[in-house]
UniProtKB/TrEMBL annotation:
The lineage of its organism: Bacteria, Pseudomonadati, Pseudomonadota, Alphaproteobacteria, Sphingomonadales. GO terms for biological process: tetrahydrofolate metabolic process. It comes from Sandaracinobacteroides saxicola. This is Sarcosine oxidase subunit delta. One of its GO terms (molecular function) is sarcosine oxidase activity. It comes from the Bacteria.
Amino acid sequence: MLLIVCPHCGPRDQTEFSHGGEAGRVRPANPEVLGDAEWTDYLFMRTNPKGVHKERWCHSAGCRKWFVTGRDTRSHGWVK
Ligand SMILES: [Zn+2]
């Protein structure tokens, strides 16, 4: 079980949250000009770092607010 610290509610069980994926992804400004490989890269390819990774989370069973937090993929420890 992971404890996630919601910045609005404090520490809560992971089951109360929805994972929103990698933080900082920017939608291409003109997707209609992208080729299939570039569009596929935007939709499906994510970094997979060993270490601190910024992620979006929603406290879906709580305050329902989205926030960005850091997680160390080596230890599942949360970092700011
Ligand atoms: Zn919350």
